[in-house]
Amino acid sequence: SIYFERFHHFQEKMEIFVIVHSLDVPFPSSRDAAIALRSLSPDREPRKGGISKELTVSGSTLSVRWSADEARILRVSVNSFLDHLSLVLETMEMFGPPVSQ
Amino acid sequence: MTVVIGFEGSANKIGIGIIRDGEVLSNPRRTYITPPGQGFMPSDTARHHRAVILTVLKEALEQAGLKPADIDCVAYTKGPGMGAPLVTVALVARTVAQLWGKPLLGVNHCIGHIEMGRLITKANNPTVLYVSGGNTQVIAYSERRYRIFGETIDIAVGNCLDRFARVIKISNDPSPGYNIEQMAKKGTHYVELPYTVKGMDVSFSGILSYIEEAAHKMLSCGQCTAEDLCFSLQETVFSMLVEITERAMAHCGSQEVLIVGGVGCNLRLQEMMGVMCDERGAKLFATDERFCIDNGAMIAQAGWEMFRSGQVTQLEDSWITQRYRTDEVEVTWRD
Fold first, then answer.
1. Looking at domain B123-290, does it have CATH number 3.40.50.1400?
2. Which of A43, A96, A101 is the closest to B87 by Cβ?
3. What is its cofactor (chain B) (predicted)?
4. Staple partner for B32: which of B48, B292, B334, B335, CB 3.0–4.6 Å?
5. Number of helices (H) and strands (E), helices first, in chain B?
6. What pLDDT shows up at residue A10?
7. Is B320 in CB contact (< 8 Å) with chain A?
8. Nearest to A94 among B54, B69, B320 (CB)
9. pLDDT tens-digit profile of B114-159?
């Protein structure tokens, strides 16, 4: 049916065009970067599909890489990540530095 | 001595409390209050929580007179609740747990209410009525689980009250339920509403639709007052709750009732439950708004019990969850 074709076409398009976005966040130390990584990593994206986000730490830099099917979905995820990141940074500023272990 | 700090923010309240072996050392809280006619949306609520959470944390430590080093465990609400506010609170809990080098513990919000109620009232093994804006359950403990005997099959009783308040533009300050309770005292005429008990379960969505529809008609032609509607709604939904609580008590042979959750501080509900308890020779336990309404100490208290029984949550397992049933938790701290 026409509906099926449209759907099929849409799916193909989604597979071809993927928007990638990356962000590097410098931290004062690798310890701080590792704390932020472990605070920000546990929660999955609220949306089931259409977006993936990968967090990694290298030295004292936290790197985030998104790939999304649509700019709209990407924007929502990036915005919410920035809100979360700034809250974690504020928390570290107010209640850090980390105790020595 | 074991000191636990608890972070709660699953709905429109953000609270952080500190408990040391059954003693509440501090329990500051803020409420996100929306204009009359409006509910609280997840993203706006999360923004509110982000704006105040660190101030509340500072207050909690200062009022308790403690330093981070004095704390043994960081507990936070894992769920159930609204996703965005839950994440906000979990982020801060995870971060401070790491900064301070303390173990983390994810707590079921409903279990928090039950354990706080037990702590404050000293009820030993009560049948629990848990009534709030998001939950309506009748619960009894058996074999290491808080088992749900009856619950709402659609919306929570508090949600029914909140949404009724929005329809007739009752203020959300300090809470719609409180204002309905005050107005209900002035009601004189009982408007008959649907009464929807289904076995051990209850339903509130039909009552809400009915009163939403009836309200404007009846108010505009002067058939009844807003106060009459508040009174009638309370009498109807509270009767339903008392009925299913009584039936659960009969099933369990229980002689104690504990009311927890935000709606639990409604004195009319407590009064009606008290009448039923008197008739059965049972004892009623309830707490006031400090501990009934969502707060941080309740998460600290459930966390204290869990931590003392050997539980902790690894950071990678510390994701929040919007759905988390009361009976999913294994109660490792009771016989």
1. no
2. A43
3. a divalent metal cation
4. B48
5. 10, 13
6. 52
7. yes
8. B54
9. 999 999 999 999 999 999 999 999 999 999 999 999 999 999 999 9
Superfamily for domain range A18-95:
Alpha-D-phosphohexomutase, C-terminal domain (3.30.310.50)
- How far, CA to CA in Å, does B155 sit from each of A2, B159, B182, B208, B245? 40, 6, 23, 9, 18
Task: Read off the DSSP letter of residue A97.
Answer: S
Average pLDDT over residues B233-249: 98
* Residue B218 DSSP SS3: helix
At B57 the three-state DSSP class reads: helix
* Alpha helix (H) residue ranges in B122-262: 157-167, 176-184, 205-220, 226-252
* Coil, helix or strand at residue A8: helix
* pLDDT-derived band at A48, boundaries 50, 70, 90: confident
Residue B65's Cβ-side half-sphere holds a number of Cα atoms within 13 Å equal to 3
The number of C-beta contacts closer than 8 angstroms across A and B is 75
Q: Which 3 state secondary structure label does DSSP give B45?
A: helix
Residues A25, B158: Cα–Cα separation, whole Å = 43
For residue range B36-79, list pLDDT tens digits in order: 999 999 999 999 999 999 999 999 999 999 999 999 999 999 99
Integer Cα distance of B29 and B16 in angstroms = 7
What is the distance between the alpha carbons of residues B263 and B270, in angstroms, rounded to a whole number?
Answer: 10
Q: What pLDDT was estimated at residue A101? A: 62
